[in-house]
Amino acid sequence: NAGVTQTPKFQVLKTGQSMTLQCAQDMNHEYMSWYRQDPGMGLRLIHYSVGAGITDQGEVPNGYNVSRSTTEDFPLRLLSAAPSQTSVYFCASSSHRGRVGETQYFGPGTRLLVL
Amino acid sequence: AQTVTQSQPEMSVQEAETVTLSCTYDTSESDYYLFWYKQPPSRQMILVIRQEAYKQQNATENRFSVNFQKAAKSFSLKISDSQLGDAAMYFCAFLPSNTGKLIFGQGTTLQVKP
């Protein structure tokens, strides 16, 4: 198993550009989520999904869109990049196995710089 | 709102010694889960240990153990026989039982001195 994979590893954008951060998992996990990590603030939840076709907002959703058309993939879209979105982005997944509380497994992260 | 607080931005320990990282959380929930994640310079988030709130017994994983005080809403991590590879940022995280929304503390950077 590859686990949770993320692409790209690093990206530089200009203000106003759009892009999609890719996330995929091969563990057949129902739950997937996106976090951003900023210095001194830990990780904050952006969006999450409890299954294909179902998404919901986390703590800091503004400026980001998500969709979940398959169990494996959960892309994060930046519609119009802003310098405030410079951060490290992590995707995570977990299997509920009928209940929440299962461990979330994280991808390696995508470092995004918006100029 | 649920919050997680790690009051020690940085900690230092001598190799082979023991160190304790502190974490407190605020919630009105009675059923939840607590985690410690390790983030080395590679940035990969690695699960260290997991505690279920309904279990009174403290979780242990080899050299890592927790002191879970539910009434005090405290969840500290003890690392015994510290090794150079333990140097990393450590995050405490809280997961309510009815959602998958993991809430993180600010992190503690652990330095291990040879």
Name a few traits of the molecule.
heterodimer; A: 115 residues; mainly beta; 7-stranded mixed beta sheet; 4-stranded antiparallel beta sheet; 0% helix; B: 114 residues; 6-stranded mixed beta sheet; 12 strands
Any overview of this molecule?
The complex is a heterodimer of chains A (115) and B (114). Chain A has no helices and 11 strands. Chain A is 0% helix and 49% strand. Chain A has strands at residues 4-7, 10-13, 19-25, 31-37, 43-51, 54-57, 64-66, 76-78, 87-94, 105-106, 110-114. Chain A has 115 residues and is mainly β. By secondary structure, chain B is mostly beta strands. Helices cover 0% and strands 53% of the residues of chain B. Chain B contains no helices and 12 strands. In chain B, the strands form 3 sheets. In chain B, strands 2, 5, 6, 10, 11 and 12 form a 6-stranded mixed β-sheet that branches. A 4-stranded antiparallel β-sheet of chain B has the order 3-9-8-7, with no helix packed on it. The mean pLDDT of chain B is 93. The interface between A and B is medium-sized, with 27 and 26 residues.
Layout of strands and helices, then pairs:
The complex is a heterodimer of chains A (115) and B (114).
Chain A: E1 4-7, E2 10-13, E3 19-25, E4 31-37, E5 43-51, E6 54-57, E7 64-66, E8 76-78, E9 87-94, E10 105-106, E11 110-114
Parallel strand pairs in A: 2-11
Antiparallel strand pairs in A: 1-3, 3-8, 4-5, 4-9, 5-6, 7-8, 9-10, 9-11
Chain B: E1 3-5, E2 10-14, E3 19-21, E4 24-26, E5 32-39, E6 46-52, E7 60-61, E8 64-69, E9 74-79, E10 88-96, E11 103-104, E12 108-113
Parallel strand pairs in B: 2-12
Antiparallel strand pairs in B: 1-4, 3-9, 5-6, 5-10, 7-8, 8-9, 10-11, 10-12
